[in-house]
Amino acid sequence: MKIPDFVLRFAGKQVAKNLDLQEGPMGTKKWYQSKTMWSDAVTILVGIVGLVDTHFTGGKIATNPGYGVVLTILGAMGLYGRAKATTTIQ
């Protein structure tokens, strides 16, 4: 049984309304104005610290449970930033 297109469009609009999604073109901004980009950059730097630590000092930082918590928080911040983004990056 095929669901009619008008039913799917109506359901999509209701989901968008309930999730407070916006329609229409997004504005633009520079990459350095993006919280998501900064979160990603810091995540990469923390990952490099863990890689260097594991390779040269035996993993004293990377095996610390707090290190995993920091990476998890940074990843969550990146996802949150992407979900709440209202502008595109130039």
Write structural notes for this entry.
This protein has 90 residues and is mostly helical. The chain has one domain (25-89). Helix content is 62%, strand content 7%. The protein is built from three helices and two strands. The protein has helices at residues 5-18, 35-56, 65-84, and strands at residues 27-29, 87-89. The protein has a two-stranded parallel ribbon with strand order 1-2. α2 runs antiparallel to α3. The longest helix is centred in the middle third of the chain and has 22 residues, at 35-56. It is elongated. The protein starts with a helix and ends with a strand. The mean pLDDT is 83.
Indicate the overall shape.
elongated
Instruction: Give the integer mean of the pLDDT values.
Output: 83
Total individual domains = 1
Report the end-to-end length measured between terminal Cα atoms. 44 Å
Strand content: 5-15%
In short:
The chain has 3 helices and 2 strands. The longest helix is centred in the middle third of the chain and has 22 residues, at 35-56. It is 62% helix and 7% strand.
Name its key features.
mainly alpha; two-stranded parallel ribbon; 62% helix; 90 residues; 7% strand
What does the secondary structure layout of this molecule look like, with pairings?
Blueprint: H1 5-18, E1 27-29, H2 35-56, H3 65-84, E2 87-89
Parallel strand pairs: 1-2
